[in-house]
Structures are given as C-alpha cells and as structure tokens.
Write a structure and sequence with these properties.
about 290 residues, Alpha-Beta Plaits, Rossmann fold, seven-stranded mixed beta sheet, four-stranded antiparallel beta sheet, 15 strands
C-alpha cells in the first residue's frame, strides 16, 4: 500500500533478550526515513524475554507499508522475534456480547458514539432481548440468540455464526453472563475481553458482590481480562478498586461497582485497541 500522506504505524514485538535489539530495530526504522514517536520497552527477568511497542511516523511520500514490513522481516528473523506492524488509521472491528445488565454496554456505546473509543461495531449479540431498544437507538444491528439450559451447544453455535458474520478483530463481553465454551475460547484466543465484577483472583464465578459482603471486605473491584478455558483466570489487562464500609449492602456494592466496571472495561479495551498489550504466558505486559 502506497500513501501520499504520512502514515502512523505501531510495531509490537517480543523475543529472547539479547544485545543489539533496540539498535537493530531503531536503525532499520531510521534507514526507511521514519521516526519513533513513542517507545515502550520491558525485559522480563524470569524468562529473559524482551518486549517492545513503538509508534512510528513514516515519510509523507513514497512509503509502502508492505515494503516496510517485508524489510523488517529480515531483522525480525535474525532476532527470532514475534512481531506485528499495524496501520493506526485502520479501526478494529468489535462484536459486543451482553446479557441484561446495561451499564457496561451503555458506557461503551456512548464512548463509541462520541469518538472516544475508535472501533467499528457491526453488531451487538445478546442471549436476551432486553437491550434491543438501547442498541437499535444507536443504529446498530441487534441479534437475540437465547442460550437454553437444555441445549447450550446449539445456542453457542448460533452465537458463533453471528460472531463470524461480524468478522471481528476482538470480542467484548460487556456483562455477558454465560461461560464461553472452550472451543470458542481457543478460536479467539487473546481476543475475547471480559469484565468481571470483582478484584480477581478474589471471588471468581457468580455473585461476587454477595461473596464480598459475606466476607466483610473493605475493597471491591473489577477486572478486565482475556477469556480462557479456565473461568475468570485469563491474563489480566486492567483492574481498579473502591472502598466499601461495613454498613454497605449488596445493593450499595453493586451500585458502586458499576462505575468501576465501566471505567476498567473501557481502559482495558483502549489498551487492546491501541496494541498496548503483549500476552506472556498468563500475564499481560501493558504499555499504558
């Protein structure tokens, strides 16, 4: 692809730590007439793995992303590097899944509508019809696909078909109160983003606010994480907490928790959209 105007790229990569990584990568970028406008680097001391995220401003004319990527491949091969180069101007496509709680969905739709979170949203999928009016008010197609206890497999297969139709780069579970089957987790590994209404690993599974009230905790929180086959145990992207008191009821906790869920999910999603996350084992390296 040739561009007459300047193109901004993101380079995200990891490899075994070794001398000369930064010199080789930055040297190649400079040779192409491009410049690094933002740099994030980290070395994991346990695994001796080096991570980097660069934002790159390219020349205003005569530049080809394909040629740049092909040339970088030879550098990456010498370093045995996992890498990807992304054109910042291309918005990611999302499929949002939701059940009946509306707060996370409403927050994301508003941020999308005003341009605070840049993504394409071809559809919203739900196992209930409750939020159809909200979604369609934004002019977005809404698909109700029930997940029935007696035949969950059929429900998830139908859901998977709608997801595939949306051709998403990522899937957001905005309080989708169903457990993703392992085959869907595997198909979209590290691309399914969930918001869990507790400060994981505390209070996994259902009714975490009830569990928190029973334990008399003084902090409640929310966790944005990637979905894996193990319930609420995927790589953690973002978390936050708020204080609660002994006289707060479960209803109070749920009210306070909604605000945290909204902001944590939005931050975690932004990190994903901006390619700020590198997954290393069951851990997220986040260049926030």
């Amino acid at each position: 692809m040739n561009a007459s105007d300047s193109t901004t790229l993101r380079l995200v990569a990891d490899c075994l730590d070794q001398p000369g990584i930064v010199a080789k990568v930055s040297g190649y970028i400079a040779q192409q007439g491009a410049s690094i406008t933002e740099a994030g680097q980290y070395e994991d001391s346990r695994s001796k793995t080096f991570f980097m995220r660069y934002v790159i401003a390219t020349p205003t004319s005569g530049f080809s992303i394909d040629d740049f990527s092909e040339g970088f491949k030879s550098i990456a091969d010498t370093l045995n590097m996992n890498w990807r180069i992304v054109d910042v101007s291309k918005k990611q496509r999302l499929a949002i899944l939701v059940s009946q709680h509306d707060h996370c969905l409403a927050y994301l739709l508003h941020r999308w509508k005003v341009g605070d979170l840049p993504f394409e949203l071809p559809s919203v999928i739900s196992n209930h019809d409750t939020l159809r009016e909200l979604v369609e008010w934004y002019g977005i197609p809404f698909h109700n696909i029930p997940i029935r206890k007696e035949d969950k497999q059929a429900g998830f297969e139908a859901t998977a078909e709608k997801i595939e139709e949306a051709a998403p780069d990522a899937i957001v579970l905005a309080r989708y109160m169903q457990i993703f089957p392992p085959w869907l987790c595997q198909k979209y590994r590290h691309r399914v983003i969930n918001i869990h209404h507790s400060f994981l690993p505390s209070f996994v599974g259902a009714k975490p606010y009830h569990q928190a009230e029973e334990r008399g905790v003084k902090l409640i929180g929310a966790t944005c994480h990637y979905v894996t086959e193990e319930l609420d145990a995927g790589p953690i992207i973002e978390q936050d907490v708020t204080r609660v008191k002994h006289n707060h009821s479960i209803r109070d906790m749920m009210r306070l928790g909604k605000d945290i869920e909204n902001t944590v999910l939005a931050r975690g999603l932004r990190y994903h959209l901006e390619d700020r996350i590198l997954v290393h084992g069951n851990k997220c390296i986040v260049f926030a």
